[in-house]
Amino acid sequence: MLIDCFQTSAQISRLIIFVKREDITYIYGQSLNKQLNSGNVETQYEQIYKKQHYSLVGKHSAVKVCHWTKSELRGGEGCYKGTFYGIKSHQCVQMTPAVSSCTENCSFCWRFQGFDGMHISDEDDPEFILEESIKAHKKLLTGFKGNPMVSKEKWEESQDPKHIAISLTGEPTLYSRLGEFIALARKRGISTFLVTNGTLPMVLEKLDPLPTQLYVTVAGPTKAVFNSVLNPALGNAWENFNRTLDLLPSLDTRKVIRHTLVKDINFPFLEEYTAMDRRAEPDFIESKGYVHVGASIANLSQDNMPSHDSIVDFSKKLAANLGYVYTAERRESRVSLICKDPSKAKIDFSAI
Ligand code: SF4
Predict the structure, then answer these.
(1) What residue spans define the domains of the chain?
(2) Ligand 1 centroid vs 333 CA: distance in angstroms?
(3) 174-197 pLDDT, tens per residue?
(4) Residue of 72, 73, 94, 157 best suited for mutating to test ligand 1, as the one with most atoms within 8 Å of CB
(5) CATH architecture assignment, domain 55-351
(6) Tens digit of each residue's pLDDT (9 = 90 or more) over 134-171
(7) Which of 290, 296, 283 is nearest to 322 (CA)?
(8) How far apart are CA 318 and CA 121, in angstroms?
(9) Are 308 and 289 in contact (CB under 8 A)?
(10) Beta strand 284-289 with 335-339: parallel, antiparallel or unpaired?
């Protein structure tokens, strides 16, 4: 057992106790806030989440309506995943089953990082999380009913979600019943995008069923950069992450590597990312520029935002190195897509 105390770049100190349990190292931690304000910290966190328009679901999940969901509802553009893979943003629920639990404290993360540790001690049932998340999402959309910019057709479609983005915040693979949650969504004809930081390969190895599309964030091209940018709370995060890279080729689902790129910090490192992507053999690789918003403002500066053109240039060089095809981009999201086979980029939703 090791007791460690550290301060993240987001100025949150945590008392952390590492406990080895089977092959997962859990951390039971308390934020400095919690230590200083024991008794009412939950209320404080709830207030922050509410202020940021999250809807808390049960004991450890949350929903937040995405900017692009609102945009597409109003007849505007959907998110880049619509352009790349064909999802409909106005039918997408953005949620997490691990709102206050993560294995990292990424410096580029724009979400509130009031993480309590790496263990969800009292887990809600997946049926409950799914039903209540959809209910919460619909409730958050109520104000759009009757909005003159929202067509009747779009409104009605929005009440019948077809996608769930299991991302939002936290590390979703910390929820031990994630596979059941994905299975229930599939049963309802809902596709799932799961975004993980790859620090828990032992969960991905056993995840059944796998999501429609599995995202792994690859933002640490070397061990030193990994540790400084992602601030892992797990002692063996780098080794675990590398296990995930080597595991990916064996996982039978659509796989995406997402490079979140922070200028002068983890970008460009073209050769290092090329070597990692070659091992992981993803179907798709998204290169996305860091955006200076939200909580990340405390850690990084505007100068750390790479230009869209530099992202495209990087992406094209990566494609050339790997034998992938440069396929698409969205300038306002500073993101580009390269594919092993561009004809497979669009999802066949009839097969969900
Ligand atoms: S996939 Fe992500 S960005 Fe796109 S609509 Fe859903 S939550 Fe928003």
Answers:
(1) 55-351
(2) 12
(3) 999 999 999 999 999 999 999 999
(4) 94
(5) Alpha-Beta Barrel (3.20)
(6) 999 999 999 999 999 999 999 999 999 999 999 999 99
(7) 283
(8) 41
(9) yes
(10) antiparallel
